[in-house]
Specification:
The structure is a single chain. This protein folds into 2 domains: 1-124; 125-181. Helices cover 71% and strands 5% of the residues. It has helices spanning 4-43, 78-81, 88-122, 129-147, 151-181; strands spanning 51-55, 58-62. A hairpin with a 2-residue loop joins strand 1 (51-55) and strand 2 (58-62). It is mainly α.
């Protein structure tokens, strides 16, 4: 019979898996929105002053799909800003594409971590080589995501995941020795 603490851990892992499924859906929607935003920015290469078009016999002024960059406090990703792109629409599209890549990395990390919780919920012991491997993969993906913000923080995140994976590998070895003893 499993002890109550283990049952609570498995229940928490199950709940976390459900929550991560919802987050996965939200992140998938964000990826679609980033893609649509990038596509719109490329399609509507408009000047900030607008462009007159005729719709059903009426003339309408359409403005750029993004605010004029000089009026914005934040202009997107710093390395994109350093590219010195002249077109407001193209710069916005490139920022949308970069954001989409970052959100895709977040989705990959969420899926890996969700699968970790599912394995923890379903297995008799969390100390398996499959879980240790998934922890390492999650560490790599999350470190790449964080790298866009700070090299130092990315290094700390990578080392933290590596430490966690080492603890799991150590637990695997201890469990093997215990099984051999019994």
């Amino acid at each position: 019979m499993e002890n109550e603490k283990i049952l609570n851990i498995k229940k928490a892992a199950h709940t976390t898996t459900k929550i991560l499924n919802v987050i996965k859906g939200i992140i998938t929607a964000a990826i679609i929105i980033c893609g649509i935003g990038a596509l719109c920015c490329f399609i509507f290469k408009l000047s900030p002053d607008g462009k007159e078009i005729s719709i059903f016999g009426r003339t309408v002024t359409v403005y750029a799909p993004v605010a004029y960059m000089d009026q914005m406090d934040v202009r997107g990703f710093e390395f994109v800003n350093n590219l010195n792109i002249d077109s407001v629409s193209v710069e916005a599209a490139v920022n949308c594409i970069v954001a989409m890549v970052m959100v895709i990395l977040a989705l990959v990390a969420i899926v890996i971590i969700r699968n970790l919780f599912k394995l923890i919920e379903e297995s008799d012991t969390p100390f398996t080589s499959e879980i240790a491997k998934k922890i390492k993969i999650a560490g790599i993906v999350v470190s790449i995501m964080v790298l866009s913000e700070s090299v130092g923080i990315a290094a700390i995140v990578a080392l933290s995941f590596w430490c966690f994976a080492c603890v799991f590998e150590y637990g695997i070895e201890l469990q093997k020795h215990e099984d051999e003893t019994l």
